[in-house]
Write a structure and sequence with these properties.
Structural class of chain B: alpha/beta
CATH class of the largest domain in chain C: Alpha Beta
Number of helices of chain B: 10
Order of helices and strands of chain C: EHEHEHEHEHEHEHEHEHEEHEEHEHEH
Chains: A alpha+beta (67), B alpha/beta (245), C alpha/beta (356)
CATH topology of chain B: Rossmann fold
Number of strands of chain B: 8
CATH architecture of the largest domain in chain C: 3-Layer(aba) Sandwich
Helix content of chain B: 25-40%
Distance between the termini of chain B: 42 Å
Strand content of chain B: 15-25%
Oligomer: heterotrimer
CATH architecture of chain B: 3-Layer(aba) Sandwich
Radius of gyration of chain C: 21 Å
CATH superfamily of chain B: Thiamin diphosphate (ThDP)-binding fold, Pyr/PP domains
Number of strands of chain C: 15
CATH superfamily of the largest domain in chain C: Thiamin diphosphate (ThDP)-binding fold, Pyr/PP domains
Strand order of the largest sheet of chain C: 3-2-4-5-7-6-13
Strand order of the largest sheet of chain B: 3-2-4-5-7-6-8
CATH topology of the largest domain in chain C: Rossmann fold
Largest sheet of chain B: 7 strands, mixed
Chain lengths: 67, 245, 356
């Protein structure tokens, strides 16, 4: 069991997390935040292994990881 | 479940940083915060920020910092460190700041073996002022002041600061890293830690040159900037430890 | 305390050390070389830091850094070197970093000459850098004054968290005179100065206490910062210092500062014996300027002002004009290009004026 928590207001949709997630947990969502970015959301949370690669790649420290 | 990756305490909880999407300045300041957390030295840390996008950190950081005049961060850091040796003092400078206007201060501080750490962020372009040519701009890389890209006969060649400083006797540690892949992010963090440890151990001048990006002024999507780093920047600026003594 | 025979530059350095200055960074330029040279020898004896910067630009920024830690810090240079420092000085003023610097001024403009001059008056008093900041500027006319001003400058810098300038011409900087040195601040006092600055000093506070944020740009509110600084400058009226010599019955009043004032004073003693009623107003602080000394003159008696300075074109004259406000003519007696004001030149100028 693992999960990611995303601060949607910090996300700028650069998609580094999406690119590097080894399990395809994340994807760009269809909603926008206050800054106008289509923020990333978990789409396959069950697949998350808590490797934290997404969080390490995130420039905006928008992701925290639990395991 | 246990939290296995926390946001560093080195950046503000209550604000979104002012960097463009995908900009690695924010990755790097995050890594610095993580290292300060892990080494438990946040209460000693002083960041000396260069002029340009580097300065956007000032409000985002949670610990002591100052802004140096353009290019003078190594001199300001020298003053802080000499006057207060207990502080952990690092400069945070872009390529225009460190390698162009501040070249004298940069080389001289390195040559004195000043016991400071330089975080040198090299993205090959002036960011804040709008994409002008930097001393590290690649051949063929367009800049607002070099519309045809760097031309050797007119502009000279990209400057390799690690290799230039490696000609000096004093520097303790020179490494070039990047943040374009998870593995390189981890190597960058390790290099920052090593540079800070060197300072705490009084080993003298350490510099981590980080090959970074500027999606906005490169005119590419953030994801494409990662490819650009891999394909264009890294062949010109090979990663690795250049000096470790 | 016994008197010692000291050169102006060295006396300035020793006064700074005695005031608790523990960081100095400088760069060679004539005629101020004896200041960094003295600090290089002296700082290790008192546990202070001397750094020879790679340039004037680096030196002022080292002082900006050291001053940011709350350490009493100083730099010095001469004229064109001060121009190079001007960006850093402006940063110190904007970020409200206390520090002291001395300009042992030489000829100008440009590289000028290495000989003494007073060509930097407007730069020193009106714009030592971009952005319209102000500083207390002291102009000594003896080595003793240079000592006392430097010693006190650190208190003013600390009081206001602002740079203070000692505007010292190359004559005072390079001449030797018998002087009395002020008391040496104890190690405990020096440590207490730094401790007292701890709250704002950029030394590392950590995330749990109010961090130090040295702001040369005030991105959170430049206008507020400027309003605050302007209010501080307004308090400086009380700091104005001026010497008025034989002004009470004077029909001709000389306006001069620094070495020119000293030369003029010696001329006045001769002219008085000739029966010429001449006096002197000598700004000791050239900023803030003692306008009041000129405003309060009885212009039914005063026939003319003679502006005496080692600058062509005249610069002090602009402030004198503001004080005189067209109530009498202002003549000049000027030298430049490293030529020292001579007593004969002042004597001639006053005699001519007296015959008019």
């Amino acid at each position: 069991m693992a999960k990611v928590e995303i601060r949607s207001e910090s996300c700028k949709s650069c998609q580094y997390c999406v690119k590097f997630c080894p399990k395809g947990v994340l994807a760009v969502g269809d909603k926008v935040n206050a800054k106008g970015y289509e923020y990333v959301v978990p789409v396959k949370m069950d697949a998350c292994i808590g490797c934290s690669i997404c969080a390490r790649m995130c420039p905006d420290a928008a992701i925290e990881v639990y395991k | 479940m246990e939290k296995v990756y926390s946001r560093t305490t080195g950046i503000r909880e209550d604000m979104v940083n002012g960097f463009c999407p995908g900009c690695m300045h924010s990755t790097i300041i995050k890594l610095i915060g993580e290292v300060l957390d892990e080494m438990d030295i946040m209460d000693k840390a002083v960041g000396v920020l260069g002029i340009g996008c580097c300065g956007l950190h000032m409000e985002y950081m949670t610990y002591d910092n100052t802004t140096a005049p353009h290019g003078r961060a190594c001199a300001v850091a020298t003053g802080i460190k000499r006057a207060n040796p207990d502080s952990l003092v690092y400069t945070y400078q872009g390529d225009g700041d460190f390698a162009s206007i501040g070249l004298g201060e940069s080389v001289s501080a390195a040559n004195r073996g000043e016991n400071i750490t330089v975080i040198f962020v090299n993205n090959g372009i002036y960011g804040m002022t709008g994409g002008q040519m930097a001393p590290t701009t690649l051949f063929g890389m367009k800049a607002s002041t070099a519309p045809k890209g760097r031309i050797a006969e007119e502009h000279g060649y990209p400057m390799h600061m690690c290799e230039i400083l490696n000609q000096l006797t004093a520097p303790a540690y020179l490494e070039r890293t990047s943040c374009n892949t998870p593995a390189n992010v981890m190597k960058t963090k390790k290099a920052i830690r090593k540079a800070f440890e060197n300072q705490l151990n009084g080993k003298g001048f350490s510099m981590v040159e980080i090959i970074s990006n500027c999606p906005t002024n490169w005119g590419v999507e953030p994801l494409d900037s990662l490819t650009f780093i891999e394909e264009k920047m890294l062949p010109e600026y090979p990663l690795g430890v250049i000096r470790d003594k | 305390m016994a008197r010692v025979f000291m050169k102006g530059c060295e006396a300035i350095a020793e006064a700074a050390v005695r005031a608790g200055c523990r960081f100095f960074a400088g760069y060679p330029i004539t005629p101020q070389n004896e200041i960094p040279e003295y600090f290089a020898r002296r700082m290790p004896e008192v546990g202070g830091i001397f750094v020879q910067g790679e340039s004037e630009v680096a030196s002022i920024n080292m002082v900006y850094g050291a001053g940011s830690t709350g350490t009493r810090s100083m730099t010095s240079s001469s004229s064109c070197g001060i121009s190079l420092k001007s960006e850093g000085i402006s940063y110190c003023a904007s970020a409200r970093i206390p520090m002291v610097f001395a300009n042992i001024s030489r000829g100008g403009p440009g590289v000028g000459s290495i000989h003494p001059a007073q060509q930097d008056y407007l730069q020193a008093t009106k714009a030592s850098g971009n952005g319209g900041f102000e500083m207390l500027v002291f102009a000594p006319s003896t080595v003793q004054e240079a000592i006392d001003m430097t010693y006190n400058a650190f208190e003013y810098a600390q009081r206001d968290r602002n740079p203070v300038l000692i505007l010292c011409d190359g004559v005072i900087g390079t001449m030797m005179e018998p002087v009395k040195l002020p008391e040496m601040k104890t190690d405990e006092e020096v440590a207490a100065f730094k401790e007292g600055n701890k709250e704002w000093a950029c030394i590392g506070h950590g995330k749990d206490v109010k961090r130090s944020w040295i702001e040369p740009g005030h991105w959170r509110g430049q206008e507020d910062a400027n309003i605050e600084a302007a209010a501080m400058y307004e308090t400086w009226d009380k700091d104005v210092q001026v010497e008025e010599y034989l002004v009470e019955d004077a029909q001709i009043v000389i306006a001069a500062y620094g070495i020119s004032a000293r030369v003029a004073k010696s001329a006045i003693d001769i002219l008085r014996k000739e029966g010429i009623k001449v006096g002197l107003i000598r700004p000791i602080t050239v900023h803030p300027f003692p306008y009041h000394s000129f405003e309060k003159l009885d212009y039914s008696r005063v026939k003319a002002i003679l502006d005496v300075e080692m600058s062509i074109p005249a610069q002090l004259i602009y402030d004198v004009k503001l004080g005189v406000n067209n109530r009498c003519p202002i003549e000049t007696c000027l030298r430049s290009g490293g030529q020292i004001m001579s007593r004969d030149a002042v004597l001639d100028a006053v005699r001519k004026l007296n015959e008019k």
